[in-house]
Amino acid sequence: MKNLILFIAFIFFGNITNDQVMIWNETSKLTWADFKAHPDTESDAVALTASGITFGYSLKTSGDKIVDFSTNVEAHFYPDKSWYVKERGNAHILAHEQLHFDITELYARQFRQKLTKLKVNQNLKAQLNQLQVSINEAITETQQRYDKETNHSMVIDKQKKWEAFIAIELNNLAQYKS
C-alpha cells in the first residue's frame, strides 16, 4: 500500500483558536513528538499535518474614515490536529511534512509583503478580506500541487526539487519573516 501523506490547511481569519499552536521558526524543525493527535486508523496516510495562517487586523478610524491599520500574520502548526503512524513514520516523511509547514510560512511571507503595499482607504476592509481569500486559495493550490507532484513524498527527485524551490523562495522573502 502506498505511503500517503495528507495535508490540511486551516486559514483562520480573526480570532485565534484555543488549540495549542507552534509558530513557524527557521531554526526549529518539526519532530514526530509535535504530532500529538491520534492517527486516523481508517486512513492509508502515514501522517497528517495541520498548519495554516492566522490573520488579524485592526483599523484606526476618525469619525467614519479609516486613517490607519495594523495587521498580524503568522504561520502556525497545530500539534493537537496533526498525527502520524509511529510504525511507519520516518525521516523522509517527516521532511515532507516539514515542507508543508514551510510552504505555509512562504505564503505568510507573501501575505505580509502584499499587506505592505496596501494604502489606507475607505475600502480597506474589503481589500484585506479579499487578500486573505486569495492567499487561502493560493496556498491550498500549492499544497495540493506539492503532494501531487511528489506523490505524497514518494517521488524522491520531485521532493528534492520542491525542497530547493521552497528554500529559495523563503530566502527571497526573508525580509517578511516574522
Question: What keyword list fits this structure?
Answer:
178 residues; alpha/beta; single chain; DUF922 domain-containing protein; elongated; disordered N terminus; DUF922; 6 strands
> How many beta strands in the DSSP annotation?
6
Measured distance between first and last alpha carbons: 40 Å
Number of alpha- plus pi-helical segments: 3
Question: Proportion of β residues?
Answer: 15-25%
Instruction: Quote the average pLDDT.
Output: 90
Number of domains: 1
Q: What is the radius of gyration?
A: 18 Å
Shape: elongated
Structural class: alpha/beta
SSE string: EEEEEEHHH
**Poorly predicted parts:** 1-16
The description of the largest β-sheet is: 6 strands, mixed
Portion of residues within helices:
25-40%
Structure report:
It holds the Pfam family DUF922. This protein has 178 residues and is an alpha/beta fold. The chain has three helices and six strands. The chain has one domain. Strands 1, 2, 3, 4, 5 and 6 form a six-stranded mixed sheet that branches. Strand 4 (45-62) and strand 5 (65-77) form a beta hairpin. Helix 1 runs antiparallel to helix 2 (124-150) and helix 1 (91-116) runs parallel beside helix 3 (156-172).
